[in-house]
Amino acid sequence: MPPRYKRLVDNIFPEDPEDGLVKANMEKLTFYALSAPEKLDRIGAYLSERLSRDVARHRYGYVCIAMEALDQLLMACHCQSINLFVESFLTMVRKLLEADKPNLQILGTNSFVKFANIEEDTASYHRSYDFFISRFSEMCHSSYEDPDIRTKIRMAGIRGLQGVVRKTVNDELQANIWDPQHMDKIVPSLLFNLQQDQIPDRCAEGDKDGTVDLTERCLRELLGRAVYGNIKNAVKPVLMHLDNHSLWEGKSFAVRCFKIIMYSIQSQHSHLVIQQLLGHLDANSKSSATVRAGIVEVISEAAVIEASGSIGPTVLEVFNTLLKQLRLSVDYELGGGLPLYVIFSPCSYSVPQGSFAGTLPTYQRSEVMLFIMGKIPVPGMYPTLGSSNSGFEGSRMIQIMLLKSLLQVTVGFQTTNMLTALPSSFLDPLLSFTLMEDAEIRLLVLEILISLIDRHENQLKFSLRVLTDISVLKLKMDKCSRQDNLFMKKHSQRLYRHVYLACREENSEQQHFQSLFTLLGLICVELANEEVVVDLIRLALALQDLAVTEEALPVFNRCAVHALSAAYLNLISQLTTVPTFCQHVHEVIELRQKEFPFLLPEGVFKLEKVEKVEKVEGEFLFSQSKIAETLGGSGYNSDRLVTPYIPQITESNKTLNKQHRTSRDQQRKNSLRAGGGNKGELYLIQSHVLE
Fold this sequence. Notes:
Blueprint (H helix, E strand, L loop, with lengths): L3 H8 L11 H13 L4 H17 L3 H17 L5 H17 L3 H15 L13 H11 L6 H22 L11 H15 L5 H6 L5 H14 L6 H14 L7 H13 L5 H14 L5 H17 L9 H20 L5 H5 L1 H13 L3 H14 L15 H20 L7 H4 L2 H9 L6 H15 L28 H21 L7 H17 L3 H20 L5 H22 L2 H17 L5 H4 L19 H9 L5 H4 L9 H23 L18
Helix pairs in contact: 1-2, 2-4, 3-4, 3-5, 4-6, 5-6, 6-8, 7-8, 7-9, 8-11, 9-11, 9-12, 11-13, 12-14, 13-15, 14-15, 14-16, 15-18, 16-18, 16-19, 16-20, 18-20, 19-20, 19-22, 20-23, 23-25, 24-26, 25-27, 26-27, 27-28
């Protein structure tokens, strides 16, 4: 007579397999296993023997019954002998997974997933899941002819991998699931299925079967369990998959992958992902332009998700890598390669830097701004970032891109101490760009200054026009702090000088004058004390004198400077709330509206062309003496008000002008040597020497 455990096992199988498991006998077998746990391994071995025989004889109904019995025993038994039983169980699962019948593969997977969700009471020292990782990965790539069955096999493979991860990821006794040999199978298998909704036919159908959703959940679960030492092994297969299948160029899938990664891993580890992306960008320095552009796009998206402040010491590494790639791209275009906008457009390049800096606290953002400024080629101050072959045109490209990066960094910049946040080492080279002939560079500098000074989101409220009541602007203002007073005491004359010089540029357009008005308005509401207000009024009157006397300026520019001066005096008079000052400004504006409308913003910027300007004098000009008299009666410094503003040219400014002239002359010589005599093709630096 066979042993009792064999009889109990035999009794759970009905004569007709369609009748299913004999539940009453299954309860007896379970009770026996719980009462005599030492017999559990023998029960498992005998069930395994029966299952192997039934598989060989194609008696698949009995195979299903055997697996159901194994599942129930696993759920019920948590004794010390469970390990030996599990070995028999895994042997049977392996047998099913090796079968060529899809239904058996899916059956084996379902049993394994149930097993993976069981928390075992005892440790296992000798169990291996290598086969299951390999087999489930193969199932994820199934190419079975019938599409419905193929989908079921792939989904079974995904759930199987999910089960392996759950079973092994936190078990120190198991083979490390994070080893490259395992990650190189698991991650590409998941990405392959995640990629299915990128295929045109699949896109039209949508994710009806849920494969993509299941894959994404599995990938998120895997990444969510990764600790510091495992991030590299988890991310590297993603990079390799995107390389091998040329998926950087499409961008959307690569971006999606790294969004999943960044949202799934623990936030304190996210800088490690950024480091790997930067390293991969370096490694692809000789790859096609579209590949590098795709990697930069992914970096920008990943940086947006980066948790605040978690980049830490890798900040400068980030910028160094991007700057290196920018230099290579400039050299590539100037060498006759693909246009730079395809490789690193200003947008695609500046976004990663701005994205990084946008997540940093103020003190680190200040460091980033100083770092970028130190890399911008300023003739005579900072060396050229590009190679010796890139020349002046290469320097100009880098200047524009880095200034756009700097603008992105300054968006939302908030500081209570402008003096420490914007030191001379930052402002001096920045303001030096207002001396350049290149209109695009000057406009970028103005936008950067506006972004830095605007701490109450007022910049969009300043439109270059004449308002009879500025209360409609709803400007937000605070009392000027001691730190702001110190900042203006140190830097105000430098700011005024560069505003004045910017108005002398012949190639300025409407946007330049709008930005100058916004900058002056922000200085008035953000940084102005009584002394600053007096100097700003003197500056506005000096601009009026410039428009009257500077006959070499184009007619449009002279009219625009008149309009700028008028609009600003109208603004500042209402901010001072001195009635007689407001009345004088209003009277001059009314007269201009009748006789010289092109000397006001509403006139000059609406006319297609101003042919000439008659000599403007007398009552059509704002009177410095009248303004000094009206404000003197309200406590302002009338002696200073009556003193005309003359830009102060410091020794450092004279030196910079000399360096700019030397650089300009050298550029002309180089151009002539190269056979390029067309002055219009050069972007020259204009030196301002005041008479």
